[in-house]
């Protein structure tokens, strides 16, 4: 996947409130499917579907060494998503800093400048 | 800091960019709508110029922006049509980049409010779809604008 496609997958996975809640839970530590299903009024298969989306997007992984196969969060994709917003923010901040400068210049002109007297 | 830039994603299809300026609203309005002023700040990356900046500020009126990096022979253009003009509070437009990295038209709404000598600018960009919003902001900004993304590139390269 290109970086752009990865971001698409990340944001698509993050678009669902259940999946965001699952990620919030996993941010506190790994958990099994049964543990993850507990707070939701959802069956384990329904939760498993969400977990598949999250795993496909690289946001979580499954530990293979334990029998309960706990899921854990993978921070890298989330970091990418955060970086995207940060880059977007920097883009606008640069533009608006230029506007700050222009507004400063425009307001620094004396009110009775030669231009205004004509 | 009062001038802090805030970016929010209130819905699946929108990006809202909020920023305050130390200037009266009329002046901020002029800087967004008069070509001679717009081209002084609505810049691309360093080295890019804005040879075309045309604005017909009325409902149904068109605008056209073009940027150029002469050193590398690169150009980028976009245009739109105004759908509402309420000087000096707000204007709306439908907008599209020439290479359509925004995945269809966007509907832009720019609102200015003045309080205590400051003007707050709220720019809402509504994309054609959630997919369009996410991919436009992620890939289009980097491909098209090439600005300020060295950091993102570094992060992505380090993964």
Structural class of chain B comes to: alpha+beta
Number of domains as seen in the coordinates of chain B: 1
The total tally of domains of chain A equals: 1
Order of helices and strands of chain A: HHHHEEHH
The amount of helix of chain B comes to 10-25%
Explain what you see.
The complex is a heterodimer of chains A (118) and B (159). In chain A, a hairpin with an 8-residue loop joins strand 1 and strand 2. In chain A, helix 1 packs antiparallel against helix 4. Chain A is elongated, with a radius of gyration of 24 Å. Chain A has 118 residues and is mainly α. Chain A has a two-stranded antiparallel ribbon with strand order 1-2. Chain A has one domain: Arc Repressor Mutant, subunit A, CATH 1.10.10.10. Chain A contains six helices and two strands; from the N terminus they run ααααββαα. By secondary structure, chain B is α+β, with helices and mostly antiparallel strands. Helix content of chain B is 23%, strand content 42%. Chain B contains four helices and eight strands. Chain B has an eight-stranded antiparallel sheet. Chain B is globular. The relative contact order of chain B is 0.17. The interface between A and B is medium-sized, with 34 and 36 residues.
